[in-house]
Design goal:
6% helix; SH3 type barrels; mainly beta
Length: 67
Amino acid sequence: MKGLAFNSMRYGQKYNLLNFGEVYDFEVIEVLERDDFKLKDIHTLEVFLLSDLIQFGKGDDFEITEM
């Protein structure tokens, strides 16, 4: 795993996630328990959970970076 660890993600910050070739740009809008976060997509304003993005596992290309 490259990039940031989940526990270093902070409320109000913007991040980029790469997993299985898919790219997500999001802002953390709420920190939940057990290393889960409520996120808002920067482009579509859709709200979702980090656990939804990684529910099928972490690919070889998995990386979270700060924007």
